[in-house]
Amino acid sequence: MTVLVTGGAGYIGSHTTLLLLENGYDVVVYDNLSNASRESIRQVEKLAKRPVAFVKGDIRDKATLAATFEKYSIEAVIHFAGLKAVGESVESPLSYYENNVCGTVALCETMASYGCKSMVFSSSATVYGDPQELPITEKAPLQATNPYGRTKLMIEEILRDVWYSDKEWKVMLLRYFNPVGAHESGDIGEDPDGIPNNLMPYIAQTAIGKRAFLSIFGNDYDTRDGTGVRDYIHVMDLAHGHLKALEKLSEIEEVTAVNLGTGKGYSVLEVVAAFEKASGRRIPYKFAPRRQGDIAACYADVSFAKRFLEWEAERDIDAMCTDMWRWQSKHPDGYQHKEET
Ligand code: NAD
Ligand code: UD1
After folding, report:
1. What is the distance between the alpha carbons of residues 10 and 37, in angstroms, rounded to a whole number?
2. How far is the CA of 319 from the centre of ligand 1 (A)?
């Protein structure tokens, strides 16, 4: 089976591509390299010991998409491509709507015209906004608090409408909690551009000495130790969830949303302690004011994923930190070859 992986050169896409290759799928990676390097795919090929078809293309570019569907017999799409920085989306909302929403529309139109109607979509726990109840089930009210989150909500709605108009569509919405860590080889991982916004890459860069200290955004939340609590999930467990989703796709009867998390929440201070243990380095930190838009706590109810996908995360916070540290120490500057070919 040939799977088109949009955004497959990126963080979660590259790990999922590797797992797909290892499980006998043929993969076509489709990525405009706006936030990734071709090198990630070279590393994936090395690890999988198999070549990967790569198309440098934009999901908004229907001509290149059509040429890709002409060339390969694509049966399903895992759709990772999108912009994902919350702060940037507040400053530049139109580019988020254009890229994420218009891009998804162009992708769906092309898929439909080639009779490919199976999609696994990268949604996010951000669609739950500030949750009223914990753990969060898939039935919790949906709410966006920034343009990035709104693109995810809009795309979920668009995909539901598409299915409603044509029940041959099979769509799964995977709502990721906080993906972290790296492949256990330490040869693929997250390669943020500039100063990381997210906690784990910031901690890793502090451990390696690229950042002087971590600012902990708020120590007065109503949580165990006052710092924010999140459901961190190892990126390889997440990748595995996509494999399970692909396997189940043909069986579903309506657009189905699934939480991908571990069901456990860790505070910022607990993550710092786990990273110190994994790396043997001290992580200097200072408490700072709360970050605008942050919530106190967020973790998943994973019972539906267990029942429906027959999947659950296997790696704990220590494995997440150990693998993150291996990637960070083997590749302190991320992927070396950033050329866009
Ligand atoms: P990433 O930035 O590493 O990967 C996204 C990839 O999409 C990049 O390789 C980028 O070059 C590509 N891309 C962006 N716009 C494109 C376009 N118009 N055409 C073609 N390619 C395009 O991000 P990631 O962390 O791997 O996230 C993958 C998906 O998962 C995104 O949709 C993101 O919103 C979603 N998600 C991520 C997280 C997270 O914490 N990483 C959490 C929830 C959801
Ligand atoms: C952020 C995004 C969310 C996105 C998710 C995964 C915001 C407001 N939310 O979520 O939409 O889906 O990333 O990409 O940006 N923290 C610090 N210091 C730091 C960085 C983070 O203390 O330097 C704290 C945060 O306050 C939070 C926790 O660490 O309590 C996790 O933060 P982060 O990794 O940015 O993820 P989220 O805020 O959950």
Report:
1. 8
2. 23
Q: Ligand 1: distance of its center to the CA of 81 in Å? A: 5
- What residues does each domain of the chain span? 2-180+232-261+299-313
Identified catalytic residue from 148, 176, 202, 221: 148
Residue ranges of the chain with per-residue pLDDT less than 50 = 341
Residue 147 CA to residue 130 CA, distance in Å, equals: 15
pLDDT in tens, 167-215: 999 999 999 999 999 999 999 999 999 999 999 999 999 999 999 999 9
Q: Which ligand is nearest to the CA of 211?
A: 2
The two tokens of residue 252 are: 């579903």
Burial class for 293, CB neighbours closer than 10 Å (0-12, 13-18, 19+): middle
Paired tokens of 192 = 């943020």
Pocket test for ligand 1, best of 40, 80, 120 (most atoms within 8 A of CB): 80
Other beta carbons within 10 Å of 233: 26
Whether 285 is catalytic: no
**End-to-end alpha-carbon separation of the chain, Å?**
26
- For the segment(s) 2-180+232-261+299-313, the CATH number from 1.20.120.450, 3.40.50.720, 2.20.140.10, 2.60.40.1930 is 3.40.50.720
Q: Quote the DSSP letter at residue 105.
A: H
pLDDT at 338: 53
Quick check: CB of 198 below 6 Å from ligand 2? Answer: yes
